[in-house]
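User: Could you go from structure to sequence for me? I need the amino acid at each position, not a summary. Structure tokens:
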């Protein structure tokens, strides 16, 4: 819901209510190649198919309610990564692996889609729309018949000048929130052909700062666990 009524008869903004059912399917082509015994190159290219079904109740276009279906598909954000094994794991010591990852904005971003006169998107984003980079450190500790793992990573998103008018709003410089993440878990071999794994991953996403009509707006932070 958007819009606020301070007292009866004094209304700020336009009241509207949206209900969205979002579906996305991602097919990913990935590959890894060992450059040396310790250095590995990885490539990932996603193909994204998205459909949104929106039920909109708005005062802006004098309609009681309307249903709108939007779909989009195409290549998402390609990822390139390098991993290097820092330690050998000899004599029962843990193995440490460092990695760096780059994500160019090859997919259509949220500011690349078209909008109608009310500022409602007529297309769907297939990528982030911003350059991103990530650095991380992973620890592997083999203890037969299990392998324990833990990791830390930091993701940096590069700010950019959007300079685009959406509806009646002018969007200037956008600084997407960076994120820091950690994970912990283990893999257990039940027999030579079957294994199971259990783990937890947590990410803290810092606020995004967006310049709107010459003023900088700041979103709230987000925590995601899986």
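Assistant: Here is the amino acid at each position, in order:
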């Amino acid at each position: 819901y958007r819009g606020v009524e301070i007292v009866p008869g004094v209304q700020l903004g336009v009241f509207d209510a949206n209900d969205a059912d979002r579906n996305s399917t991602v097919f990913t082509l990935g590959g890894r190649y060992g450059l040396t015994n310790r250095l590995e190159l990885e490539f990932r290219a996603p193909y994204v198919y998205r459909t949104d079904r929106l039920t909109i109740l708005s005062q802006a276009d004098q309609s009681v309610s309307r249903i709108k279906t939007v779909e989009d598909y195409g290549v998402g954000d390609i990822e390139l990564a390098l991993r290097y094994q820092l330690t050998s794991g000899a004599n029962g010591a843990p193995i440490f692996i460092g990695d760096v990852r780059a994500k160019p904005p090859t997919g259509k971003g949220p500011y690349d889609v078209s909008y109608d006169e009310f500022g409602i998107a007529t297309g769907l984003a297939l990528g982030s729309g911003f350059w991103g980079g990530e650095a991380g450190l992973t620890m592997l500790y083999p203890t037969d018949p299990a392998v324990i793992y833990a990791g830390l990573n930091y993701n940096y998103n590069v700010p950019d000048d959007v300079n685009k008018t959406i509806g009646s709003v002018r969007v200037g410089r956008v600084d997407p929130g960076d994120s820091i993440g950690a994970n912990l878990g283990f893999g257990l071999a039940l027999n030579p052909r079957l294994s199971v794994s259990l783990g937890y991953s947590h990410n803290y996403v810092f606020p995004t700062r967006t310049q709107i009509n010459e003023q900088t707006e700041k979103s709230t932070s987000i925590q995601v666990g899986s």
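One structural detail worth keeping in mind: The longest strand covers residues 10-34.
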